[in-house]
Amino acid sequence: MDKMMLRAAVLLILSGHLGLCVGEDILSPGPLSGAVAGLVKFTTNLVPPKNPFLSVSWSFKGLNIITSTSTNTTQPGYVSRITLDRATGGLELRNLVLEDSGEYTVTIIPHEGPQKQGKTTLTVYAPITGATVRSPVAVLIEERSSTNLTCEASGSIGSRIWMKDGRPLHPSSRLSFSADNRTVFIQPVHFSNHGTYQCRVSNPVSTMTVAHNLTVNFGPHNISIIGPSAATPGQRVMLQCTADSVPLANFNWMFNGNETRVNNSMYIIERLGLENIGNYTCSARNMVTMLENSTMLNLRASCTAPCWSFSVLVISAATLSVLK
Q1: What pTM did the predictor assign?
Q2: Which of 65, 42, 70, 44 is nearest to 55 (CA)?
């Protein structure tokens, strides 16, 4: 054994049994994270000295994995997986496996001064893969149905975060989460629950987001008729019926209480005349929820200049009716 090796061995023995002074932690702040099959670098805050360290030793969970003096002694299982930076005492560990998680300790003996030591913890994670969101196959109807969404994934799951239409999802009187955030419960469903749900599964080395469209059949709600309540005689008038509904509602129209042949959302009067003045009722029906709602618009003639001739027609028609 040469003098350098002998000195290093003596210092290691003395530091262990006589409690020689150990400086501050020389490793960069941790803990460290690594991915299965990836690599991690344990770096020190030491500047390479003029004279090489007498000894650099690394241990894992208290068991030595490599010691370097004038030669390197590496434990089986680490020979092809580690590289030691003799200048700074840093270590690179490759082809990580889950079992590499734990505490690592480095002990360095310089030519001068007390030995230096550092400790840090490594956690190895399996990357997230195969994330999915599933829910029971069912036709969901507002206020009548309940459901749940479950987020599954492979790998080392650190956290699950739920969003709806790109915004964070929060508990409410209808919505709750399982203890591990794996499942969202909705009891009963509301039209506001209709939309796209995202589950983001992550750990310190990987993230995966998956989306699921939830269909809640609802409505028709907020039915209304878009169009003028007064129009100039002779002009073209368009009335449009709208309603919030999933699936889309079926529409039909009535004029002054009588059914018409119009069964879509648009009611078009090509040229407004006396016979078109009155009440227009639009009914919207959802063929899944079997609910129906209606609204009415009173269409009248506006009193602009052309309205005089229109009024004359109205009076004349009335007069003729009386004469008969």
Answers
A1: 0.77
A2: 70
